């Protein structure tokens, strides 16, 4: 019982001396089958999912003694696939063999459909409504009945625009390491003000990117995962009328090549440690990108970026420390410089207002504590610096805009747990005696 094994006491023999001999039959798994049930009637029906797609998720195998604890873990695993509404395992006697047949009852979720939503862009620095984004998405979560995911989305705002197609196979067939594959195509237009902001007359500058690539991910060890990929990017800047430009108002270049667009082929590697997965748990992310100059005009550079987080519980409060940093070596697009300042960086500053450099480091400490129900209070302090690398960015766009290169902010706020995720409203002061509200959805990166 302690091990959750499924068995039966089939005989009792009382011996002399106060000894009882029990005959215990352990139920060996004879067969495992999948039965699809209708969502409305509960009657057996024909499923869309390939049975082998479900069976390979199970750790319970034929020939082993059936463990109810292991069966529960298998049920949870199948539910995390995201394509089932309900899952249960029913053991049944396999004739007179003393073995059991396992029937897994599954109720499939609708395979996909259209949805609409909205959000807020953290790259917008002015205007109460200019940061709003509307989205329209079509998703299919069980393509070919193999748990493969297709997602087509369009996000549109006053400045932002992103069209994205993602096709993911969470577990490549025939692979025993649970490797996933994602193929993506994306066409985006995002604000360029993080690095090249403060244009005359409050005019806007946008960065257009066309991206296509493939990524492979797999677990490396418990709590660790790794991703490797190859991504092509075609990027350039445009003015508010949509015309390609190669320099901003301060004559700082907007591309590394001197042309209207930069092309790059990136080899990407990322390693992630997630701890327990909770917001207060430890986390570490290392991301490395290498530009491959297969053509002479393609950019050749190496970019390293790392983030770490550690949470410490102090009674009902949570003390969270986070640190991030990065560096770029080689010839890279100026608009790809590390931007410092803003809601997910140094609060108290506008987005990118502290600096934009070839290197950066940002540290943050905050204490959150329960207030009432889903509402939390928070006290925080942030510090960020470009490590003196601002002038090494082509054209020194940070120096032209008199960005300080380093700065700190501190303040207080509230967070509300909602179906959309944590809603953050924070009020911050910076070292230049300025004050600023910050609003965000989701935890700080």
TrEMBL record:
This is Uncharacterized protein. It comes from Manihot esculenta (Cassava).
């Amino acid at each position: 019982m302690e091990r959750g094994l499924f068995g039966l006491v089939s005989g009792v023999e009382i011996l002399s001396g106060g000894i009882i001999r029990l005959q215990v039959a352990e139920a060996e798994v004879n067969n495992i089958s999948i039965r699809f049930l209708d969502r409305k009637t509960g009657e057996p029906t024909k499923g869309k999912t390939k049975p082998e797609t479900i069976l390979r998720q199970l750790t319970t195998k034929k020939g082993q003694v059936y463990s109810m604890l292991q069966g529960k873990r298998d049920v949870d695993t199948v539910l995390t696939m995201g394509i089932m509404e309900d899952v249960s395992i029913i053991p049944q006697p396999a004739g007179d063999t003393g073995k059991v047949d396992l029937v897994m009852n599954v109720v499939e979720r609708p395979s996909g459909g259209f949805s609409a939503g909205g959000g807020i862009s953290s790259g917008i620095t002015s205007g109460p409504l200019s940061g709003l984004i509307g989205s329209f998405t079509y998703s299919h979560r069980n393509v070919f009945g193999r748990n493969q995911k297709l997602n087509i989305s369009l996000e549109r705002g006053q400045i932002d625009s992103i069209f994205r197609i993602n096709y993911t196979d969470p577990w490549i067939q025939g692979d025993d390491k649970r490797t996933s594959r994602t193929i993506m195509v994306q066409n985006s237009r995002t604000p360029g003000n993080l690095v090249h902001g403060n244009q005359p007359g409050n005019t806007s500058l946008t960065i257009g990117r066309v991206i296509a690539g493939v990524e492979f991910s797999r677990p490396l060890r418990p709590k660790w995962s790794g991703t490797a990929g190859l991504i092509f990017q075609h990027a350039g800047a445009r003015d508010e009328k949509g015309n390609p430009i190669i320099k901003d108002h301060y004559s700082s270049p907007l591309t590394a090549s001197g042309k209207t667009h930069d092309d790059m082929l990136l080899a990407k590697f990322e390693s992630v440690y997630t701890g327990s997965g909770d917001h207060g748990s430890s986390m570490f992310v290392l991301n490395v990108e290498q530009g491959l100059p297969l053509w002479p005009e393609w950019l050749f550079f190496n970019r390293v970026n790392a983030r770490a987080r550690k949470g410490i519980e102090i009674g009902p409060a949570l003390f969270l420390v986070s640190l991030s940093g990065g560096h770029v070596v080689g010839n890279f697009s100026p608009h790809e410089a590390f931007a410092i300042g803003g809601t997910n960086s140094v609060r108290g500053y506008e987005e990118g207002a502290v600096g934009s450099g070839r290197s950066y480091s940002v540290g943050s400490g905050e204490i959150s504590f329960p207030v009432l129900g889903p509402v939390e209070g928070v006290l925080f302090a942030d510090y960020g610096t470009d490590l003196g690398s601002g002038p090494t960015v082509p054209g020194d766009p940070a120096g032209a805009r008199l960005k300080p290169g380093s700065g700190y902010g501190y303040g207080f706020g509230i967070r509300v747990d909602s179906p959309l995720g944590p809603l953050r409203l924070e009020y911050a002061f910076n070292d230049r005696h300025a004050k600023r509200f910050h609003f965000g959805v989701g935890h700080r990166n």
